[in-house]
Amino acid sequence: MIRLYYSILRVLAAFFLLVNTDLMASNYTARADYWINHEFQPSTLTEAQQRHELNWFIRAAKPFRGMKVRVVSERIQTHTYESNILAKAFYEITGIHVVHELTGEDDVINKLSAQIETKQNIYDAYINDSDLIGTHFRSGQVLPLTQFIQGEGKSVTLPTLDLNDFMGLEFTTGPDGILYQLPDQQFANLYWYRADWFARPDFRGAFQAKYGYSLDVPQNWQAYEDIAQFFTEEVKEIDGVRIYGHMDYAKPGPSLGWRMSDAWLSMAGVGDKGLPNGLPVDEWGIRVEDCQAKGASVSRGGALNSPAAIYAVDTFVYWLTRFAPKDAQNLNFTQAGEWPGKGIIAQQIFWYTAFVADLTKPNLSVMNQDGTPKWRIAPSPVGKYWQVGMKSGYQDVGAWTLLKNTPLKRQQAAWLYAQFVVSKTVSLKKTLIGLTPIRHSDIASEEMTKRAPYLGGLVEFYRSFAKNVWTPTGTNVPDYPGMANYWWRYISPIVQGNVKAEKGMDDMAHAMDKHLAQLEKENKGLCIPRLNSEKPEAYWLNAKGAPKMMIKESNKGVTLPYEEALNVWR
Amino acid sequence: MYGARHVSLVILSLSLSVPFLNAASKVQILTYPVAPFASQVDGVKQGFLIELLDAIFKQANMPYEVAFYPLKRAMAMVSQHENMCVLPVQRSQERESQFSWIGPVMISRYGLFSRSNKSIYLQVLNDAKDLNIGSFLGSGISEYLQGFNYNIEHTANNHLSLKQLERGYIDLWAVELMSAKSAMQAANLDLGDAELIFFTSIAAMACHSAMPNDSQESLRDALKALYQNGFIDSLNRKYGVRLD
Fold first, then answer.
1. Partner residue facing A110 (CB), from B124, B199, B202
2. Is the pLDDT score of B8 beyond 70?
3. Complex ipTM, two decimals?
4. Chain A contact present for B228, CB below 8 A
5. Less packed terminus of chain B by CB within 10 Å, N or C?
């Protein structure tokens, strides 16, 4: 009897839910107004323009009302905002229920690979790093957005999407000129330092006296090393607290791999000139000619075990073990992210700006009372093999990626959500929450000018040319999911002192070559690798460009005042 | 050849004295009882994973042996013994370097269930932020939710979580959908559909990090072949495993 009573209750509840859904159906416009007034301010659009844009979503979503769409992304603040707030707003405005899952980036990649391999529609869309662009354009598994927008996705493509307004579009476009991914958020990896400590007259005087140049923003690795040594070994303590001139992380695992593959070798100067990535040799040390990978080892024309690559890894290990806190060796990227906020780090050469929001919380010791930070970010210093015309660092672009094996109707509904979370109606507010700008119009807005003093240099970076020189992994890498693990597996033993950098990089280069050879054998997709036959290393080292001959001499440290360091990129 | 036979006999005698751990020639597979995926009734091992394992190892032409252990203990054992694997395990960034991975062996959805006499409307996961969520320790999903600062009440297994839910000790039960169905059937309860299906997990087989590359490749190729020849599809249908 009780069971029957509860069954009736549940039926009634379901009925009222349906009625409620119907009421909402007649009320989408009112809900759009609510969200415009209560959440989506500020915006680069006027309220009338926002209303116009959301009305388009209401109309376009009509055939998809009642659908449940699943998407997945990594867990950073921007995506948390999308998952908690924007998915809710989208449902109330369109009637499409989105479950926006958050997980680690490696899990996103594993899931995307699993959907391709098992042919099960696990998700309707992925926010996947554009580092996979080389994989996506070759695989034939990813929906080419250029064609989709003109074809089956035309009726669900936002007229005010304004693709030219996206800053990172060239990172998500294949060498075939086709757009494969739509940027959702992006952040760079920059130099972070304590501007207040660098400004102290006592430190400036002592540094000048010891090193012969001023304590300012380092332009090359020698200056970074001098500053690291100065704070770790000369200053040592501030107000009785042990401080360090360098911070990093090296726990064996995927984040150590990304620490390397996210352009560390390009900062050293391993690859060739070229933007967004070096050609023919990129920062993974892979040589590509006519879109075909030719090899990663020097003997095949690559640079992964070249003198510049060994210099990059050796320098990483040397700084980590000599200048960073001991704990750094056992931290991953997430754990290390909070360390600069503790107030004991003077500078960090490799710092993801995804942490800006976390490091501007008012109660932190690295913040001033007026809400401005005591720290600044600036373009990173470069190693001795670097030359003008090369990329200078890494930028992460999380971008909407739809797979061909997702049913069309689900692709279309997911594409609506993807465009909603990057639409001009919401993107400025999202940028202010997560500080991962994707639109020129947002970064140029008055609101960002007002916020600039509180963001430590983030706005200045994105308003400069530097945003084009800090770039993601490019199209030279034909199988990112299959090859990314080599980085941490081969670098870990080097960091732990079990293997010399020369041997470790030789082994990794040969493993990469073997992987490329396997892809060549499988003979699937576009631009299939065609390995060069092996030649004596001297042949390639004496040729123009990468791989480069060893540079034995050290260069002198160079620094620039903060403003001048930014001016280099204006 | 004689030498090889002699070694086999030695291993066999050791295996008899310590039946499981010394069967060194076979890959030792550890799993744990989670109906309907793996269970042991009157000494008979059965379930989705048991059948899948049999197909993978036959396809790879590799001998193997299955034993049941609690997940945490099984993972500790695999990290110490070269010829061992455990499944199903959620692959994560933290675990990546500790094991060699063969997968995906299972794709599952996790949902939040409310008790049979109370509906809780959840539009996004964040709507459950102030509620008490029960989940069994080691399920992976409790760790996931804790990572986002949800209020988690741990239990030893799904059946206890279900009891806690019905007695009103917790507001929601976070559980894999197929396991939820089995636990409800066993308890003769019907909670209806999940209030929200909020997470998808890709489970894999975690093997010792030093498992020889050739063995890893054979197992991966075997699994891939089973996806391609439709075996896994039919197994999913047999056990009612589907992605809602």
1. B202
2. no
3. 0.87
4. no
5. N
